[in-house]
Amino acid sequence: MENQKRTEISEVGEFGLIDRLSQQFTNRHASTLKGIGDDAAVIDLGDGTVQVVTTDLLIEGVHFDLSYCPLQHLGFKAIAVNVSDVAAMNAIPQQVTVSIALSNRFSVEAVEALYEGIRMAAEHYAVDVIGGDTTASRSGLVISVTAMGVAKKEEISYRSGAQLNDIVCVTGDLGGALIGLQILEREKQVYLADPNMKPDLEKYAYVTGRQLRPQARMDIIHELKEMGVVPTSMLDVSDGLASELFHICKQSACGVTIYEDKLPIDKQTFDTAVELGLDPITCVLNGGEDYELLFTIQQKDFKTLEKHPDIHFIGHISPASEGKSLVTKSGTVVNLKAQGWKHF
Ligand code: ADP
Ligand code: MG
């Protein structure tokens, strides 16, 4: 034992750890079309349709802070982030299970508030809450949600499907959730220092909303379906744009070029980043938890999506040998770096 090597998780990182663990598994069933490695697993139902399954864990003190996150919003978010992973496969969510671990700090009314948010999200995304588990916890609140959805087999968008010259698209705007978190943390510290200070969050309503009540972009999935566009690859932006682009490049064995002046950022996000002394573009590239969709389309589909008000064309897929680059506003080409969202 004494000579056994101890490796810190921070040395390999979250993705390194998942890679290391997943190497031990090979799939036994032909019905397992995709196991570990995408936004959701894909299971063949045998009649040209597939089921997708995804799960996410939210831990108090790591993913949320109840001193500024209302329980109802938290319930909504727990469902939305899972629906977002179903959306990222170009599938339609149908069922969720919800498991919770509670310490005695929580009253029945508090759990009911959490579930009111879960109910609202279930209604909003048209999913059935079909089960779960409830247990005690010694360290605050833990919420684990599993979501299931369906799609036609040929309509699934994997991270591995991007092709040379495909156009890189992203929905909505980015960086807002990170800036919202910075504001909420700042106001919490102000409040802790002087409880008589009332936080003035009105001015920051958009960014704090992005952090506290994210939306899964099912609206986009339904619209793509109506327009007959199947993304060649897709994922949701949970860890940050740069990190997600790295996943596409790794799994599709390609490179990417994106343009700084095409990156979507909301005015309040921009102004607040500047106020906080942060570089807005760094926030757009590395901010997590926006839950927008990042996808690639074939050139032929550009005309169909061109006029869409909420889809932005930020770059294109290049050969793997050309690496991952960002063309700045001044035309300088720099290497794209993925800092991502570090849990460890
Ligand atoms: P996302 O950010 O889209 O939720 P993750 O980065 O959490 O995706 O996970 C990437 C992939 O790794 C997914 O396929 C997920 O199911 C898998 N995964 C994550 N943690 C584990 C684990 N502890 N054991 C097995 N698979 C895991
Ligand atoms: Mg995802």
From TrEMBL:
**Annotated Gene Ontology MF terms?**
ATP binding; magnesium ion binding; thiamine-phosphate kinase activity
Ligand binding (Mg(2+) 5): D239
Record flagged with keyword Hydrolase: no
Stored InterPro entries: PurM-like_C_sf (IPR036676), PurM-like_N (IPR016188), PurM-like_N_sf (IPR036921), ThiL-like (IPR006283)
User: Is the keyword Nucleotide-binding in the record?
Assistant: yes
Per UniProt, the keywords (alphabetical) are: ATP-binding, Kinase, Magnesium, Metal-binding, Nucleotide-binding, Thiamine biosynthesis, Transferase
Q: Which CDD domains match?
A: ThiL (cd02194)
EC identifiers of the protein: 2.7.4.16
Which positions in this protein are listed as binding substrate? H63, E289, W341
Tell me the route in metabolism or biology where this protein functions. Cofactor biosynthesis; thiamine diphosphate biosynthesis; thiamine diphosphate from thiamine phosphate: step 1/1
Reaction catalysed by this chain? thiamine phosphate + ATP = thiamine diphosphate + ADP
Q: Which residues bind Mg(2+) 3?
A: D39, D85, D236
Q: What does this protein do?
A: Catalyzes the ATP-dependent phosphorylation of thiamine-monophosphate (TMP) to form thiamine-pyrophosphate (TPP), the active form of vitamin B1.
PANTHER family from the entry?
Answer: THIAMINE-MONOPHOSPHATE KINASE
> How is this protein named in the record?
Thiamine-monophosphate kinase
UniProt source species = Mongoliitalea lutea
